[in-house]
Amino acid sequence: MRLLLAGGSGQIGQLLARAFTHEGHTVVALGRSSGGVLWDAATLGPWCRELERCDVLINLAGRSVNCRYTAHNRSEILRSRVDSTRVLGEAIAQVAHPPRVWLQASTATIYAHRYDAPNDERSGLLGGSETGVPASWHFGSEVGQAWERALDRAPTPRTRKLALRLGMVMSPDRGGIFEVLLGLVRRGLGGRWGDGRQYLSWLHHADLVRALRWLIEHEEVRGAVNLSAPEPLPQAQFMRELRLAWGARVGLPATKWMLELGALCMRTETELVLKSRRVVPGRLLEAGFVFEQPSWSGAAHELCESWRSARGAPA
Q: Which pTM was predicted?
């Protein structure tokens, strides 16, 4: 199988390239720097030839949301996602032998901030109109919806399209979200954030690869698919399970004002840690997909062991 991976320089792209290459597939990367096929993620060019006789297109392109939501950064975040999706649709429309499936990154942040019920693909509430939350929290939902509209508008009658509403992908690789969270735990800072009630939706990296492989094989599945483990947890419980898995006794809490100050110093937004993302993989579960790591307790223990093993750290 030949896969074209756009925007694959980040942690998720690297782990997908590694996994599919290990399985014997050919992975071609589209990127803005050397090491792959060059593209600008906005205009057609010689890179379009890579789509000819490509079996699978995976698009992860988009500016990181780990920044302050200034007007400039919001514009870049939105533009980078919509433009890359639009131009890939244009390229698919002009090649003689387009890919049979297009796996397009989206985000679990497309759903509303809520505690009362989980969001699945059928009954989940899209965000952007919640009351009682900062206006900046609406931005992530608005970006997700614009991203998926760009995918829907792409005229690709011979290419099946899927919007992957991704939760936090947990991998022991360097620089990923798991290493960030584990670093807090190791320093005694992995406690409650705010009131700790906000849900975290997560996915073990092995289940991400398995789910993508499953989606590639099941041609009847189209549209939006939640890629998250079936058991999202409130943040306080999530971090408690991670402390137990690591063997840490203390996890100091952080109040909302402390988080706001920290986010300002680190040039990021508290929306990333305080918005409740209670997302479940309704379509995958209904179709019979079985997760290897459905619960955070087991996944956290496996990830901690893998992290220690990869770095030669004592148990």
A: 0.95
Which residue segments constitute the domains of the chain, with CATH numbers given?
2-172+201-232+277-293 (3.40.50.720)
* pLDDT confidence of residue 10: 86
Q: What are the two backbone dihedrals, phi and then psi, of residue 51, each rounded to the nearest 5 degrees? A: -80, -20
The angle subtended at Cα 200 by Cα 263 and Cα 202, nearest 5°, is 115
Please tell me the distance from the alpha carbon of residue 222 to that of residue 309, in angstroms, as a whole number.
Answer: 38
Instruction: Kindly report the backbone phi and psi dihedral angles of residue 206, in degrees, each rounded to the nearest multiple of 5, phi listed first.
Output: -65, -35
Pairing relation of β-strands 56-59 and 37-38? Answer: unpaired
Q: Which residues of the chain have pLDDT under 70?
A: 34, 315
Q: What are phi and psi of 227, to 5 degrees?
A: -110, 90
Distances (CA, A) of 312 to 19, 84, 231, 301, 308: 22, 40, 30, 16, 6
Cα Rg of the chain (Å, integer): 19
What φ, ψ does residue 11 adopt, rounded to 5°? -60, -45
> Do residues 217 and 135 touch, judged by C-beta distance below 8 A?
no
Beta bridge pairs of residue 133: none
Give the count of beta carbons closer than 10 Å to the beta carbon of residue 88.
30
Determine contact, residues 60/10, Cβ cutoff 8 Å.
Answer: yes
Task: For the chain, give the number of residues.
Answer: 315
| Pairing mode, strands 199-200 and 160-166 | unpaired
Q: Tokens 């509209």 correspond to what residue?
A: 149
- Cα 214 to Cα 2, 84, 124, 225, distances in angstroms: 16, 25, 23, 12
C-alpha–C-alpha distance, residues 62 and 57, integer Å: 15
Question: What integer pLDDT is reported at residue 315 of this predicted model?
Answer: 61
77: tokens are 């975040």
